[in-house]
Amino acid sequence: MNYRMTRYFMGQMAIILSIVLFIPFMIAIFSGEAKTPLAFGSVIAGLLVLGVPSCLVKPKNRNIKPRGGLVMVALSWILMSAIGALPFVISGYVPNFIDAFFETVSGFTTTGSTIVPNVELLPQSLNFWRCFTHWIGGMGVLVLAIAVLPKVDTDTVHLMKAEVPGPQFGKLVSKLRFTARILYGIYVALTIAQVIALLIAGMDVFDAFIHTFSTAGTGGFSNRALSIGYYNNPAINIITTIFMLIFSVNFNLYYFVLIGHFKDAIKSEELRFMLYVFLGATAVVTLSLFFNGVYNTIGEALLHGSFQVSSIVSTTGFTTANFVNWPALCQIVLFISMFIGGSAGSTAGGLKVVRVVVLSKLGLNALRKTANPRAYLAIRMDSKTVDDSLIHNIVTYFMIYIIIYIASLLLVSATSPFDFTTNVTAVTTCFNNVGPGLGAVGPMGSFANYDVFSKLVLTFDMLLGRLEIFPILMIFNPKAWRRIKR
Fold first, then answer.
1. How does residue 285 score in pLDDT terms, banded at 50, 70 and 90?
2. N or C: which end of the chain has fewer CB within 10 A?
């Protein structure tokens, strides 16, 4: 662990976070809010007091080892969430720090689970901050730092590898800083496109921005208790459905389209599988809603069914209806979709489609080998053989994922007053960064009534899910904390 470089980088992160917090601070002032300007202002001042001295002198030894990079990423996210929770606490709107920490972690990890029973009681600045944390956390705050900092060291690739979701990381261009800028350029362009589309559909400016932030980060926070359902506008539903899918696609594919490699993008096996999952789940949910009489017309069933499937597959978590009251088949399809998630290299959560595809092919090959034990059956993705080390990493990740999932479920159930369905979906939705679950944590519910211990477990799960387990677990590895000798 390079402690001086860690302190230097944390100082830079503090300055960046203070700049980000300046936006809700100005909203609080111009909105004439009573308590929030002081809350945001004091946090900004504290960040600058701590951050500026920490990065005045750049360390001579800037070496970052892979283990140290993982720890730096984990610490950055934990500290960023703890600091981001302070405006809620200082303003008094969420006086319990654990609740505020849960809410902020849910924001940065793009989960969307909330402890606020009625978000419409929050002032504009805090609602903006909640949704803006989705946008920052979607692409990654360290990726943002790498994109905007004037000079990036080669070893910071370990930071980006740890933060970008997916089993494998690859630079789009030779320089890491330019890769980060390309990704954020695409991210900003798509964000602007959705804001314009929502404005045309009739949403007001403030709501258009914060719902776009939540869509872009596939998070799901809203300033409306009924989420997107508040607007009762088919155009807004359709626009949001499309953009939730767009942001759950691997951003590398958009780069391929920009440089003219359109055929390579549409041939992506991961993209095709994700679309098959969406179309198949939409068909099942739509038919179930129509034939069970939930909606009177097939068009209305398709409108709400496709929206909810897109919301869960992309792990966004917006709602237009309380799907807790939908037929059991619909709930099962949505529950399964929570695990799959979106594509690697997107802002979506879940296991990621590429892992599901590889694991499925491994299972099929195992069946084939029972009939022909001597056959060599390679796993192929996009007409290329998947490296054995990558397969091993995916299988290892899946096994650790299952162990943590079961352990979290047992821990939450040990002190929770809720039923089995609520606890299972609470862990599932937090670990996969989805947002709403079933039962008491459904679209019209919240996590407010969980005890402190359960909230900490679920908060831990959100961080594990967003950073894909290993950076958080590395904190508990004593070897990662050993000082690097010059």
1. very high
2. C
Distance CA 341, CA 294 (A): 26
- Three-state SS letters, the chain: CCHHHHHHHHHHHHHHHHHHHHHHHHHHHHCCCCCHHHHHHHHHHHHHHHHHHHCCCCCCCCCCCHHHHHHHHHHHHHHHHHHHHHHHHHHCCCCCHHHHHHHHHHHHCCCCCCCCCCHHHCCHHHHHHHHHHHHHHHHCHHHHHHHHCCCCCHHHHHHHHHHCCCCCCCCCCCCHHHHHHHHHHHHHHHHHHHHHHHHHHCCCHHHHHHHHHHHHCCCCCCCCCCHHHHCCCHHHHHHHHHHHHHHCCCHHHHHHHHCCCHHHHHCCHHHHHHHHHHHHHHHHHHHHHHHCCCCCCHHHHHHHHHHHHHHHHCCCCCCCCCHHHCCHHHHHHHHHHHHHCCCCCCCCCCCCHHHHHHHHHHHHHHHHHHHCCCCCCCCEECCEECCHHHHHHHHHHHHHHHHHHHHHHHHHHHHCCCCHHHHHHHHHHHHCCCCCCCHHHCCCCCCCCCCHHHHHHHHHHHHHHHCCCHHHHHCCCHHHHCCCCC
pLDDT tens track for 1-15: 777 778 888 888 899
Nearest to 239 by CA among 265, 257, 215, 218: 215
pLDDT range class, residue 145, cuts 50, 70, 90: low
Among 42, 52, 50, CA closest to 22: 42
Give the pLDDT confidence of 195-238 residue by residue, as tens digits: 999 999 999 999 999 999 999 999 999 999 999 999 999 999 99
Measured in whole angstroms, the distance separating CA 331 from the mean position of its chain's CA atoms is 22
CA distances from 197 to 194, 239, 251, 260 (A): 5, 7, 20, 25
Predicted TM-score of the model (pTM): 0.92
